[in-house]
Fold this protein.
Amino acid sequence: MRGNLIYVRIAFGLAVLTCSILVGLDLTGVLPRQSSILSESRVQLCESLALEAVAAADRQDFSSIRRMFERAVQRNEDALSIGLRSRNGRLLVATADHAQLWAPESDEGSTMSHARIPLIRKDERWGVIEVRFARASTSGFFMNLWGNTLFRVLVWVAIVGFLSYLIYMKRTLRHLDPTTVIPPRVQATLDIIAEGVVLLDRSERIVLANSTFADQVGRPRETLMGVKASDLGWLVPKSLEPARELPWQLALENSETHTGMPLSIKVGPDDIETFMVNGAPVAEESGQARGTIATFDNITEPERNRAEFEMALVTIEKSRDEIRLQNDEIRLRNDELQAMAMCDPLTGISNRRAFMGRAELEFETAVRNDRKLCCLMVDIDHFKRVNHNHGHLTGDEVIRRMAEELVSEWPSQELVCRYGGEEFCMLLTDTDVEEAVALASRLRRRIAAEGFAAVPVTASFGLTSLAFGASRFTDLLNQADEALYASKEDGRNRVTRYDQIVRAG
């Protein structure tokens, strides 16, 4: 309250001083008086009329004189009428109503309202121009104040000047001595700091700000003076909520430096700048903060780049996940297709093509490493009769049961295949002839046993070994097939070795 009263007193004093200066200028004659200005303008008009009238009268051109008088009345609001009178008193030329308006108080001389301008030709007076002016106010300065121009100027200066001085004082007096807030060495270095810097008093008002800060917040530096830094509209980055804690406030409260606090501010309808803000107290000898210095490092571009980078990473990760999912789906589909291509759809064991590829590799490995290897061909006896008597569904069930039995005896499913129709093939790695005969005999007995399948069946077996001289895998298959054919020829439901056929032949 006391500070506001001081501002009012100073503003009032300045307004009175300004008005006193204007009155002094008027009293000393520096400012022109209204009556002098009016008199001078009327004299100039009369002189101009006299010069032009003499020239026209010499030519006896009275019509030109009339037009000149009429134009003068139209252009000068102060002139009411004009006339040209001869030496004998006859009115030669006049504007309208001049005879009625012209009523001088005396027959000779001129006054402020009735001007007489004599016209001389050849050193003789031959006529006179009469100009009727509006009556000028004769009231003095103190009797008719409002009609006086100076008084109106003084009133305007007193009111407007007082208000202007008051506003100006309020905004400027508080900053007349910024050294009360900061040491001189800080002022000397303020303008060479690249980042935004503001110096605040105890009330958080800005007393100094460098041009960088003004540019950062998008405001002229002059308009920042005296503004509370907390009133600039600081926001929490990203959330755009009003910031509740500000580093310079914390520095004022506890006289400690607070650094690395991110803040944002709107500098336009759609522009938001983000800063890393530090606040440090400017302390007195007692240790109490006299003010604060705050620095603003603009991180808008790095933050924008980081946000764009994070968005790009999210997009890449999303794309990568989608690609991985698509690849997994493709891989699964390929695996399913490959499994379908490599498996017999009825039994689930390898089909002939898959079996041949794996079996040839096993054959080459056994030959290269001199390992034991046997091949067993199996055929369901009289299978056509099963389909004919019991139907194809029963026949399919018998084939599936046969596959299950073969796999149960030899778990390497990729080396057990449905070779075609009711015929199966098994490749027995690291197995000699005797072991293979024992395996085939067990299978034959279980297949022939009661309850093996939905209907009674038997099977014939043809067996061969790498030891019997096959140089290619196809030769090994042919040997097993010949042994199987021999089993069928000998009455079926039996196991025949290829070497027995060779000896018998």
In short: Residues 374 and 435 are 9 Å apart (CA to CA). The chain has five domains: 2-31+140-173, 34-133, 180-298, 301-342, 352-504.
